[in-house]
Give the backbone structure.
Amino acid sequence: MECSICYEKFFTPKTEEELKYLINENIKKKSYKEIEKFKNLLITNNHNKTHTCPTPNCQCITCGDCWIKITHKGKKIYEATEDDFPSINDIFVCPYCKNVDWKYYMNNVFNELQIKVLGYDVFIDLLTSKI
């Protein structure tokens, strides 16, 4: 399994030992960017930064790096300014099937709606209670 945009292979360890081996091989003496790239390609039960297109039969899976580049106007999070972050008006379109990811869009709209109706303090309380 690989990213549909950059064609990097995902790391999908099946056991704890395999996960520890991957971490030791990919993190030792590596730069911050290389460690982040590894984390964005790692898929486990507790860690998955990939984005899968919700359109049936599309099978487009993007790694965390490519997802950030698409949604943040081509910039990494630490390089992006406030204007580069996605807003509720931004609609993600799959690079392959060109269909709109309405689930991603509606999640953004729903958060904005909750803030307007409930108020910011109640929204933060709800958000922290889920964590």
